[in-house]
């Protein structure tokens, strides 16, 4: 998952299902902040 936030940058890498819940929480938080982001890649 990759997102640009007001001049800053948040980059999150999701490896396996263990971190999937954390990734979903981050995604929901970014959506609430009105941030648009590209794609979510699972390895």
Describe the structure.
The protein has one domain. Helix content is 30%, strand content 19%. Strands 1-2 form a two-stranded antiparallel ribbon. The N and C termini lie close together (12 Å). The chain has one helix and two strands; from the N terminus they run ββα. It has 43 residues and is α+β, with helices and mostly antiparallel strands. 0% of the residues are buried. Mean pLDDT is 61; it is low at 6-10. The radius of gyration is 10 Å and the shape is rod-shaped.
In short:
The chain is of the alpha+beta class and 43 residues long.
Question: How is the secondary structure organized here?
Answer:
Elements: E1 2-5, E2 8-11, H1 20-32
Antiparallel strand pairs: 1-2
Output the keywords:
about 45 residues; single chain; alpha+beta; rod-shaped
- Overall mean pLDDT stands at 61
Radius of gyration: 10 Å
Give the distance, in angstroms, between the N- and C-terminal Cα atoms: 12 Å
DSSP summary, beta strand count: 2
> What's the assembly state of these chains?
single chain
Report the portion of residues in β strands: 15-25%
Rough shape? rod-shaped
Low-confidence stretches: 6-10
Q: Helix- and strand-based class?
A: alpha+beta
Query: How many DSSP H or I helices?
Result: 1
Helix content: 25-40%
Report the sheet with the most strands, covering strand number, pairing sense and barrel closure: 2 strands, antiparallel
